[in-house]
Amino acid sequence: MRFSGFRILKEGLTGNRGWSSHWRDPDPKPNYDVIIIGGGGHGLATAYYLATEQGVKNIAVLEKGYIGGGNVGRNTTIVRANYALPGNSEFYSHSLRLWEGLEEELNYNVMHSQRGIINLFHSDGQRDYAARRGNQMIAQGDDAILLDRDGVREILPYLDFDNARFPIYGGLYHKRGGTARHDAVAWGFARGADRAGVDIIQNCEVTGIDVEGGRVTGVQTTRGAIGAGRVGMVAAGRSGQVAAMAGLKLPIESHILQAFVTEGLKPVIDHVVTFGMGHFYISQSDKGGLVFGGDLDFYSSYAARGNLPMMEHVMEAGMALMPMIGQARLLRSWGGIMDMTPDGSPIIDRTEIDGLYIDCGWCYGGFKAVPGSGNCFARLLATDKPHPAAARFRLDRFRTGVGLMDEEGTGAQHNLH
After folding, report:
1. Among 11, 103, 173, 352, which one is most buried in terms of CB atoms within 10 A?
2. pLDDT 10s per residue in the chain (417 long)?
3. CA distances from 102 to 70, 192, 204, 209, 320 (A)
4. How far is 118 from 276, CA to CA, in rounded Å?
5. Is 294 helix (H, G, I), strand (E, B) or coil?
6. CA nearest 243: which of 338, 372, 339, 367?
7. CA dihedral of residues 376, 380, 385, 389 (deg, nearest 10)
């Protein structure tokens, strides 16, 4: 089934009776060349690029729940490439370029909207850093515009510019940044992977990883044992638990990141806006709800819910930046499980067990990294060679101290990133 304007018109006029399922619901086969543990955005993208670019055909994606039910459906949908440090900068630039051609490639509307991101700054020091960061973005090949106070006011007139404690000095404008529909991204990659022959197996929880003689041979699941030549672990906040099944201890902690949505409102926020004096970011969805979030809850947890003190902190930051938000009624909130590394940057690498690979530690960057992560991890799984854009995401950097990427300069502690 291929989507087109004609097909949508035809189905609308005939009662929408001609649509078929987006992907199959197969039973697992006894053996696969590659098994991907985790059917979120990264896992589905990995399977898609393995099948379409790397020529691997016998692939299974194992998802313990349903497609779109994990972090890929529990985030604030932001897509950007405004990183500063070497390693992160080229990776997110690579990912953004994939985003820009994704809908045409998948023949699926993921609602990618390059509405622009404005990172506000509130002091001379923050302005200097924004200028340096913008120059690094441009040197990488991405876009950046340094706005003064009047430039921000022209685009975002509804902000509180004269807050005595947090006056707005200006902002760094990344026009190619924006948002995408989170679950549509999962559905699009699932559909694309299925069309390429990948078996997407839902309600299939991995309960063990089989290792013989230092090499992975398959996995144990709630639907039986499945053999595999190679296994990729792409389990987001559960990565530590999955790796432990193979006897590995990863340098990550799992923390909860809350996000919030208000009732539907008329269009008022055209861009993604971030607050420079508190971890707060906001945009408006296609349904009209204001989508916003803030900091981690700062304690390790696997519960997909947050706590009230952090909720209050996020609301305070929103009120400081734009008092008008106080008139909106909160519709719902949720918590995503974030796998945090000590330097705030991800891991895409082989493990010490032959045939076992890891893609984890995405911290706040998981959703925007989906196509880039899948593309790079697929290259590694197929060739044993890292993609140039992800060459610095090595697992051993935390053991050796060589190549650490502390993007925020906050130090080697998980819950500070």
Report:
1. 173
2. 788 888 889 999 999 988 888 899 999 999 999 999 999 999 999 999 999 999 999 999 999 999 999 999 889 999 999 999 899 999 999 999 999 999 999 999 999 999 999 999 999 999 999 999 999 999 999 999 999 999 999 999 999 998 889 999 999 999 999 999 999 999 999 999 999 999 999 999 999 999 999 999 999 999 999 999 999 999 999 999 999 999 999 999 999 999 999 999 999 999 999 999 988 999 999 999 999 999 999 889 998 888 899 999 999 999 999 999 999 999 999 999 999 999 999 999 999 999 999 999 999 889 999 999 999 999 999 999 999 999 999 999 999 888 888 776 776 666 666
3. 21, 11, 28, 33, 36
4. 10
5. strand
6. 339
7. 10
Going from N- to C-terminal start, the domains of the chain cover: 24-78+182-251+343-416, 114-176+253-340
CB 261 within 8 A of CB 332: yes
Q: What is the pTM of this model?
A: 0.95
> What would the two tokens of residue 123 be?
């002091």
